Amino acid sequence: MTRVFSGIKPTGHLTLGNYLGAMRRWAAVDQHRADSVFCVVDLHALTVDHDPARVRRLSRQAATLLLAIGLDPKSCTVFVQSHVDEHARLSYLLECVATDGETRRMIQYREKAAREQRRGGSVRLSLLTYPVLMAADILAYGADEVPVGDDQRPHVELARDLAVRFNQRYGHTFVVPRATHPAVAARVMNLQDPMSKMGKSDDVGPGIVYLLDEPDVVRKKVVRAVTDSGRDVVYDREARPGVTNLLEILAACSGGDPKSLAGAYESYGALKKDTAEAVVEVLRPVREKHKELCADPGYVEGVLREGAERARGMARPTVDAAHQAIGLLPAVRA
Ligand code: AQP
Questions:
Q1: Which of 39, 46, 54, 152 to mutate to test the pocket of ligand 1 (most atoms within 8 A of CB)?
Q2: How far is CA 29 from CA 23, 192, 289, in A?
């Protein structure tokens, strides 16, 4: 059976970009057709300046949202990365296979390092090695597929390269994974700056729709989205990034095709109104289920506990095999 792995970082409140680019498929498709493993990748949230209490709060919220979007613990495994030691164990081994050059070339590293420096902070070593930990997340589970948004393409490529290199040097140990992306909305852009990704670790802003935003807040953000000069509704990422972003969001939320939808609108106003309503309707059940789950934190904790146990059982044989293959003595366990 195909194995699927993906995760979400508790670096901010989850956004419409996270949902349309990745999470929605996990619940609607992946958990029903594959052996699926989904994770709150909290160790990744420590790679930039962070407040410990906030990371804990956001981790709990992200886990609750994974269940609120419809992940069913009977159909898939849901857990928190730091509860399973195998991720960090394998990450070190992969650091011994990765090169300094290939991690420094990662676009997210360069962007986030520059952002930390602009804010007057220092760049953590873990920011540089983060894609290696992500490779460990994926390879530990023998994942065939990694459903992610478009921005994660280079990181999954790195995971592939490391798997191939490790297998060639030390014998076949890892499945070589591949990234999968949604047909539309693989990169949802910021509504106020359609040349930039809608990112959850950006400062709070009117260009970011959060999964837990109230309907009126969503409407306001979408209606105030920056559009392009010109009046006709045209699908063109280069020339009309603002309108194209709205068409992609509308298509993803209403099931249409963004290019055909462009022909159905004569004004930006009508497009914005329909997009806002479509987003409100897509997020409504998520908000409602999240509220319900918040009333029962014991249930969420139980899911995470069982998920971590199951995840450990899946990851340990592969990570043990990697330890031996690379030249370490097997540990004697009680
Ligand atoms: N705007 C987006 N459009 C489509 N997919 C997106 N994803 C993220 N943003 C968009 C996808 O959501 C999954 C989880 O993302 P993440 O938690 O690994 O990272 P992030 O949301 O990109 O958050 P960061 O890195 O902390 O900060 P920002 O957002 O500022 O870069 C992934 O599959 C991702 O592709």
A1: 152
A2: 10, 31, 19
